Amino acid sequence: MEIDVSHESTSKFAIYAGMGVPELWHYDGRQAQIYRLMEQRYVAVAASRTFPILTNDVLSRFLEHAKSEGQTAAVKSFREWLRAHAS
Question: The pTM is what?
Answer without folding.
Answer: 0.83
